[in-house]
Amino acid sequence: MKKGFHAKEFDGMTFGMEVETGTKAYENFKKSVKDETAYSIFGDPLQVLTVPHTAVAAIMQEAHWLVSEGRYINKFYIEGFKRNEEIYIKYSDVPIDFRTRKWEGSVSE
Left if phi > 0, otherwise alpha if psi is -120 to 50, otherwise beta: which for 104? Predict the structure, then answer.
């Protein structure tokens, strides 16, 4: 079975594709999704869903490079998974901090 994967890149661009849900990679992805504390732009703790970028890359198949190489995608949801809640991609073990979160390739002033 396939489900819609809807992502938002750090620059605001949206991206959509289908992901196959009957694979071992998808089962591993589901086990990797965690409820974690992140920090808002004001420094307040927030509860958000997160997943390691490696788990997302595995379910994206040919488009894996968007997270494994480019690290372009900030967040996404999969139709029917976790009530369509947005899931933030973790590119490191550091807790997500929205005061500093940005694409690693972006130019800072």
Answer: alpha
Q: 90, 38 in Cβ contact below 8 A?
A: no
Question: Residue 67 CB: number of other CB atoms within 10 A?
Answer: 24
Q: Report which secondary-structure segment, H or E, holds 82.
A: none
> What single-letter DSSP state applies at residue 63?
G
pLDDT of the chain, 109 residues: tens digit per residue: 999 999 999 999 999 999 999 999 999 999 999 999 999 999 999 999 999 999 999 999 999 999 988 889 999 999 999 999 999 999 999 999 999 988 765 444 4
Please state the length of the chain. Answer: 109
